[in-house]
Amino acid sequence: MKLESYVKLTFLSLSLFLLIACTSEEASKNKTEEPTKQSQTEKKKENQTSLKENIPNAPTNTDELIQYPGGKNAGKSIGILPEDEKKQVHKDLDEFPKITEDASETEKELYWNNLLYLFQEDYIDPQTVLEKWKMESFGSPDIEDPRFQFKENLNVEILLDASGSMNGKIGGKTKMELAKDSITEFSSSLPEGANVALRVYGHKGSGSDQDKQLSCESSEVVYAMENYEENNFEEALNKFNPSGWTPITLALNEAKEDMAEYNGDQNTNIIFLVSDGINTCGGDPVAVAKSLADSNIKPIVTVIGFDVDAKGQEQLRNVADASAGIYANVNDQKGLSEQFKSAQDIAEKWDRWKRDSLSDLDAIKVDRNFMILAFSNDWGRKRDKQNSNLISASDYLYYEKKMITKEMYNYLSDKRDEQKYLTDRSQEEVVSYLESINDKTYGEMKKSIEEKYKQK
After folding, report:
1. pLDDT of residue 41
2. 212-221 as b/e, with b when 16 or more CB fall inside 10 Å?
């Protein structure tokens, strides 16, 4: 009886041991399987982390290409950037997530759209070319706009952004240094009898909230309206450094007061607004720009966005449109100097008019042909730069950071080729079109371009 009880007890103990062992093994198995299921979910999330979803899709036709905003790194060539600027580009790429082999087509397309958004170049639209032609045709009876007819006096005021972001570097020099160089080059080229003034804004205080009021109230004429004088102008440029916020509204308002005495009936008045960002202070710069256009000053306004992001480009373009002016986005000193050259050309024509030796309309047509060539070359340079940067970015993500798969690397390569083909095709289309309208009057050209490329 005791033996039988012992056997039963032993059997129960063994059964209990096996049951516990199996349960532990199953629990252990579940624990190892659980992370696997979890990691698959995380992989899906991983492919979307840090990717912006509220950005435009890659352009698929000429209209979309023209209207697509220039990217954060537009105008840069990664391969020849100074080391500190190259690190900043790589920092942008480091924020991209790892892409896994099971990434969906939607995830891959979002990845490509984000990459293009960083490096898309800002391609000049035909409307900008037309406005340049208008500047080129200054003084021609073909232009009915009274602002573009010869007047007895020529006055130019430059409004220069001196906010802290102008300390940012392009090619080893700060944006402020590049702007000062271009402004000096332009101002020194003005003919005898032409006047120039320089007003800076956002040059006091700092970018801190504590200094915002001080900075937003800072706008000052450092060189009053008069003929260019080298030593005085250089001294004026040395009076300020970039430091604070960006009171564009204030600067435009005060420029209107500066030029109030120069009636547009007797004066050709030109205003340049140079900024590397949006208005960060109070007021509505678009409304002030509209009041400038409606004033008796009748200025020709050129707004230059200097290395500006998409949001800044939109606001500055609206300012230009409200003033019936011209907007240009530039990313380096060469682009900045080219924009000032338009006013330089007006000054030269004005000087020749004063001397009764203005060239005829045939010369204007030849000049337009050269501008079409410059337009084509600009698109070509930007296309090559964009393609090279996208290659460098893909190589960095694949070879250096191991963030994308070989399949994804090839996908980005195919997308890059598609974009290059679109740019080539659009370049040929727009150049051919501009050549076809060169013989038209300005009014006919304006109407034709607005209808074809929807640029109102």
Report:
1. 45
2. beebbbbbee
What is 17-43 written as a DSSP string? HHHHHHHHHHHHHHHHHHHHHHHHHHH
d(CA 92, CA 315): 24
Mean pLDDT of 243-256: 96
Strands (E) in 46-172, as ranges, are 153-161, 169-170
Residue 272 host element (H or E): strand 267-275
Contact 130, 445 (CB under 8 A): yes
Token code pair at residue 254: 């005060």
The pTM assigned to this predicted structure is 0.64
Residue-wise pLDDT tens digits, 140-197: 655 667 787 878 899 999 999 999 999 998 888 999 999 999 999 999 999 988 999 9
Residue 28 has pLDDT above 90, yes or no: no
Residues 6+ apart with CB under 8 A from 237: 180, 183, 184, 198, 222
d(CA 405, CA 402) in angstroms, rounded, equals 7
Helix axes 175-189, 230-237, angle to 10 degrees: 160
Side chain identity at residue 64, one-letter code: E
Q: Do 158 and 274 meet the contact criterion of CB atoms below 8 Å apart?
A: yes
Q: Which of 53-57, 210-214, 390-394, 412-416 has the lowest mean pLDDT?
A: 53-57
Task: Dump pLDDT digits (tens) for 345-395.
Answer: 888 888 877 776 554 555 666 777 878 888 888 899 999 999 999 999 999
Average pLDDT over residues 204-232: 95
Q: Within 13 Å, how many C-alpha atoms sit on residue 109's CB side?
A: 9
Give me the long-range contacts of 310-315 (CB less than 8 A, separation at least 24).
310/69, 310/70, 310/71, 311/278, 312/275, 312/276, 312/277, 312/278, 313/69, 313/70, 313/122, 314/69, 315/278, 315/279, 315/285, 315/286
> 91: how many CB neighbours lie within 10 A of its CB?
9
Burial of 409 (0-12, 13-18, 19+ CB in 10 A): middle
Other CB atoms within a 10 A radius of the CB of residue 77 amount to 13
Structure tokens at 195: 């006047």
